[in-house]
Amino acid sequence: MQLIECPWCGPREETEFHYGGQAHVAYPADPDALSDEDWAHYVFFRSNTKGRFAERWSHSAGCRRWFNAVRDTATYQFHSFYRVGEQRPATS
Ligand SMILES: [Zn+2]
Question: Which InterPro entries does the UniProt entry name for this protein (predicted)?
Answer without folding.
Answer: SoxD, SoxD_sf
